Amino acid sequence: MCFPNGITVHIKREDLIHPFVSGNKFRKLKYNLLQAKEEQQETLLTFGGAYSNHIAAVAFAGKEKGFKTIGIIRGDELRDKISENPTLQFAENCGMQFEFVSRETYRLKTEISFLENLKQKFGDFYLIPEGGTNELAIKGCEEILTEEDAEFDYIGCSIGTGGTICGIINSVLPHQKVLGFAALKGDFLIEEIRNIVKNKNWELVTDYHFGGYGKVNIELIAFINQFFAENNIPLDPIYTGKMVFGVIDLIHKNFFPEKSKILLIHTGGIQGIQGMNMKLKNKKLPIIDING
């Protein structure tokens, strides 16, 4: 895609790596699955919300690689609504067992006592954190950029838990700058990312979260639909859609120097569109249309 001042934008289609474990989820799970096999674990246990890309990815990856999977799901009101939720229905069809907990209990997910209670209930398991981010996940995300990407000046990436961008920052070249577009309100991830990465050529952009995690508006929906119509590339509304919107807006605001070459990382998340459209229909808002 070409823009004024000789600026070009390319999208790295990580969403096409795997039909069900796409984008950064594939990268994050790669070495965790190998480690689980090495430890001779039979069960993967992880955490997520109602429409979590991570939950869907772990469920399918577990089925594909021969693991049992357990999902600790935020929101005990979802217990009787699996059939109404496309993400949970998909995960259940892949064999995932669910444990629904209240939002208050879910906040304890990193507490040792909470994890010990889970082991007493389910037996031994390989723990994958919410969103999949740990050292092995970052190692996997360090493989996103290749030698072919050396020509780009800027690398754009959406941010949830921070694992993907940490891997990209660790592998970026000295002449490149990484721009991370936060899907959540606030800049609280800056210090966490800084403590993990070894390079300093990165910046967190916090102006395009559209109200916070999972929040959308008519402007963003219209942008995603228009972008698909013009480029035949689907964008998810939680992460990638906001990043691409932000980059194009910054181009028009002259944020980038002339003739900048920008590479945007498409981290997947398309499975979540069906659930988002259900919410939009309930609110009588336009839906995301990526069916061509």
SSE topology sketch:
Blueprint: E1 8-13, H1 23-38, E2 43-48, H2 53-65, E3 68-74, H3 86-93, E4 97-101, H4 103-106, H5 112-122, E5 126-127, H6 135-141, E6 154-159, H7 163-171, E7 177-182, H8 189-196, E8 202-205, H9 218-231, H10 240-252, E9 261-266, H11 273-282
Parallel strand pairs: 1-9, 2-3, 2-5, 3-4, 6-7, 6-9, 7-8
Report Rg: 19 Å
Distance between the termini: 19 Å
Which outline best applies?
A: globular
**Number of β-strand runs:** 9
List the secondary-structure elements in sequence, H or E: EHEHEHEHHEHEHEHEHHEH
Describe the model.
This protein has 292 residues and is of the alpha/beta class. The protein has eleven helices and nine strands. A five-stranded parallel β-sheet has the order 1-9-6-7-8. It has a four-stranded parallel β-sheet with strand order 4-3-2-5. α8 links the parallel β7 and β8. α1 packs across α6. The longest helix is centred in the first third of the chain and has 16 residues. It comes from Flavobacterium xylosi. This is 1-aminocyclopropane-1-carboxylate deaminase/D-cysteine desulfhydrase.
